Amino acid sequence: MVETFQLTVNGTAQEVTCDRDTPLLYVLRNHLNLKGTRFGCGLGLCGACNVIIDGRTIFSCDTPLWSVVGKNIRTVEGLPADSPLRRMFVEEQAAQCGYCVSGIVMSATALLESTGNPDERAVKEALDRNLCRCGAHNRMVRAVLRAGE
Ligand code: FES
Ligand code: FES
Asked: Which of 36, 60, 76 corresponds to the end of one domain?
């Protein structure tokens, strides 16, 4: 059923009119023009669509719109341009094609915000559900570790 919903995305109030079961990923990309969040598998298996909701990383492809009303939704577009994490990803050249990176950066952001200075094991666990077909994981782990220092 089509309804109008009020959302908070990256600290800004947004209104969208669509079916209540629409995946958040489609709302972000197609209704709010936030294309940084990527469609990978659409099945909750790859992490390309990760966003942060109330401090926790979730797969936006299998999260229905109705369930995020009243919550604080954060996407890659909301991260500061000069954040240590972004800087370290550039310094470590922690990407190849870049398709998976926004989801990985969101997982890493949630980790750094909750634990501050995680060790290697914690970083690997936090990124465990993010796939990277280019095999850039080692560089990404290094970038997250350096950002936490
Ligand atoms: S697109 Fe959402 S987990 Fe793959
Ligand atoms: S950098 Fe290409 S999929 Fe991760």
From this structure: 76
Closest CA to 105 of 65, 78, 71: 78
> Using alpha carbons only, how large is the chain's radius of gyration in Å?
15
Instruction: Please state the domain count of the chain.
Output: 2
Residue 15 lies in domain: 2-76
The DSSP annotation for 113-133 comes to HHHSS--HHHHHHHTTT---T
CA of 19 to the centre of ligand 2 (A): 32
Ligand 1 pocket member 45 (CB < 6 A):
yes
Is the pTM here over 0.85, yes or no? yes
Residues 70-128: tens digit of each pLDDT? 999 999 999 998 999 999 999 999 999 999 999 999 999 999 999 989 999 999 999 99
38 alpha carbon to ligand 1 midpoint, in Å?
Answer: 8
Regarding the beta carbon of 97 and ligand 1, being less than 6 Å apart is answered no
